[in-house]
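ugh ok fine here u go
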Amino acid sequence: MFKHRLRLIDRQWHDRGYSACSWDRERSEEETRRIFVEWKALHDKIYSSSSHEEHWYAMFQDALRSVDRHNTGYAVGVHSSAQGISQFSNLTMEEYGAVCCGFSLDRPSPAELQRMKAKKKYERVLHLLQSCDD
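structure:
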């Protein structure tokens, strides 16, 4: 049963020569780097500097570790589905929400909120004056 489940996990990565999950150990740094380099090429990811790339590599590494843990649970029957790596694997949940759902954590400052309220009030008064002229 265990080998049967292993074959079901993330066949695309397995067919490329990667183990679907490192069952008894964490992935090596070399294996993780190799997956990251191929993932960057597959999804046309280009970073502006090496420090920027290292930051995103750390995010990708965390995502890959999470996928591995989840798929280990899938292989032994804890989870009902397997996970994989996608073009969003180097994003945090907040960044993913901003990219995919239009969600933004940026909130206007109190001064900006005041300006927005004043502008709306001005527009209402202007509209009211224009409607009275007609």
